[in-house]
Design goal:
The chain contains nine helices and no strands. The protein is mainly alpha-helical.
């Protein structure tokens, strides 16, 4: 995203929006051909049966903690989908910025996400005695304040927009990383790390599917204010779910 937004903003502004779809597609086809010609893979037979996989899924669904933390992850995916898909359009439609400039500013969000991902690991390790629950609550609370601040200062200028998007990425990717990478390790002993990671990630994609299909409708009906309220509500709900329902245990 950090590279794609400014590049696509430049292409759309100078060559039209159709080329913003055509050029990446051509690059993807070339990369696919190179991948096919250069990467060798040895086929491996899966040892898991369908019945065992079904039993494991039932076991995952029976874990109260996993269902709660996955629900919080879905809410975070709502926010991520809104900003990932609509960030340049938000600046273009609400503040009248060009698509090229909007793409440059929006690129600060994934950059903030890189820094935030590193910080979330550091924070999670340093407050380990209080549990991952504390880290997730602190990070989602910070995200809520950031979304509220973003709504009011993002359009004040290039610098304000860049800082706003950086902070959104920083606070959004923080809890995202903790839930999708650290939580599976803690539950891995009882459910299998890969199974937990796949379950949480799969639930997150359900959230993305809902957000991607409904955000445009929400913007048309309620405007950009409605979209920001949706993001803020999702962030606060994720924090409350984790704070009051998620238990500090390794088992579900």
């Amino acid at each position: 995203n950090m590279m794609a937004w400014p590049i696509l903003g430049y292409i759309a502004s100078n060559y039209g929006w159709r080329m913003a779809f055509i050029i990446p597609s051509i690059i993807l086809v070339v990369l696919t051909i190179l991948l096919y010609l250069t990467v060798e893979e040895n086929a491996q037979k899966s040892e898991g049966s369908g019945s065992n996989q079904t039993l494991n899924l039932k076991k995952l669904l029976s874990s109260r903690n996993l269902v709660i933390i996955s629900s919080a992850y879905i809410l975070l995916q709502f926010i991520r989908s809104v900003f990932t898909l609509w960030a340049p359009s938000y600046l273009f439609e609400r503040f009248g910025w060009s698509l090229e400039v909007a793409g440059y500013v929006a690129a600060f969000m994934p950059f903030g996400g890189i820094v935030g991902s590193i910080f979330s690991g550091w924070l999670s390790d340093h407050i380990k005695n209080r549990g991952r629950k504390s880290a997730i609550c602190i990070l989602t609370l910070s995200l809520s304040f950031t979304i509220l601040t973003f709504h009011y200062i993002a359009g004040l200028g290039f610098e304000a927009g860049a800082v706003s998007f950086f902070l959104v990425g920083f606070t959004l990717y923080d809890p995202h990383v903790v839930i999708s990478t650290v939580i599976p390790i803690e539950f891995g002993e009882n459910y299998g790390e890969a199974s937990v990671a796949g379950f949480i990630d799969g639930m997150g994609y359900l959230g993305s599917m809902f957000a991607e299909s409904s955000t445009g409708w929400l913007i048309d009906i309620r405007g950009w204010n409605g979209a920001m309220v949706f993001c803020l509500t999702s962030s606060i709900s994720a924090m409350l779910l984790t704070a009051f329902l998620y238990e500090r245990k390794k088992t579900g």
